[in-house]
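Progress report, Aim 2. The chain analyzed during this reporting quarter is listed below.
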Amino acid sequence: MKDASYPDSWSRTWTKDFTGCYMLNDRITLDAIRTLLDAHAAYGKAAYREAAVRGGEFLLRARMPNPQPAWAQQYDRHMHPVWDRAFEPPAITGFESQDVLETLLLLHARTGERRFLEAVPESLAYLRRSLLPDGTLARFYELRTNRPLFFTKKYALTYDRGEMPSHYSFVVTSRLEAIARRYQDLVQHGPDGKAAEPPLAELAAGAREAIAAMDERGAWTEPGMVRDVEGHKVVPPDGVIASETFIQRVTALSRYVGRARGHARP
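Predicted structure tokens for the chain:
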């Protein structure tokens, strides 16, 4: 397998002809690595650990070179970023790159192999530099220029985030500070060390954010797409309740309440 690299050129319009070979989108590779690590922990079979490590080696090779040392959603056989769906261009991704960093930290924690840890600081610094003014990350950054990329409702690439489709997250939450804390925990305490608890004030801020984000019913809603009983895509005007967001918000509240009552995090 080749190391990831930039194509000489790439189409600004959807090619429709998917040529991808390697996928990070939808956590396909990352969930496979985590499952293999869990299987090794449960059953002790060396083959599971070896397969997870090979997956980690792929992640290291899939990292793009400078000036954008992070990851694309999908790559072709030459390890160049490529189009997938009409709204998934060849680009550096702010969302899946965070998933990759978390997976590399998990690989180090489970295997003790330092090479997975060593890849993190440079990518973390790059993503921090790429934060949007409001502290979020773009889902996509243009190859080489690093300009945030968005789409119009007709799926035309644009640098303007004013008229994005609502069914897809073109702007994503930054988890970089949590990733940085986990990295520091592993550096200071080693793969078997106990992760340091974040300050109570930080947990309180997360709890306040979760409460502030509730609607009048006490639910967390956001723009999104669901399917009706006939399987048609529907974008509810009042938004959707996403399981991932629900879990994140409840976790934030639970961690604060547990600490405030003097209990350690499970």
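The chain has a mean pLDDT of 92. Strands lie at 22-23, 74-75, 92-93, 137-138, 140-141, 148-151, 157-158, 171-172, 226-227, 233-234. These observations will guide the mutagenesis work planned for the next reporting period.
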